[in-house]
Amino acid sequence: MTWFKGLEDDSIDSSHFTTRKRQPKTMASLSNILQGKDESLRDYIERFTREAIEVKG
Questions:
Q1: Residue 1: in which H helix or E strand, if any?
Q2: DSSP string covering 2-57
């Protein structure tokens, strides 16, 4: 998978492979992060914060 992550943007023109490339996180994607049933509030906030740091823009 290392070779795949190293590909330049828009270098794949087949939709067969485009879903495998990691998409940038957005503000909207943060709304999908939910606290797990057995997850402590502290762990949830830490996980949310890690994800929020990766949001572009």
A1: none
A2: HHHHTSPTT----HHHHTTSPPPB-HHHHTT----TT--HHHHHHHHHHHHHTB--
Predicted confidence (pLDDT) at residue 1 exceeds the cutoff of 70 = no
pTM: 0.59
Q: Characterize 8-34 residue by residue with b for buried, 16 or more Cβ atoms within 10 angstroms of its Cβ, and e for exposed.
A: eeeeeeeeeeeeeeeeebeeeeeeeee
Q: Which two tokens stand for residue 51?
A: 């994800």
Closest CA to 55 of 21, 19, 20, 31: 31
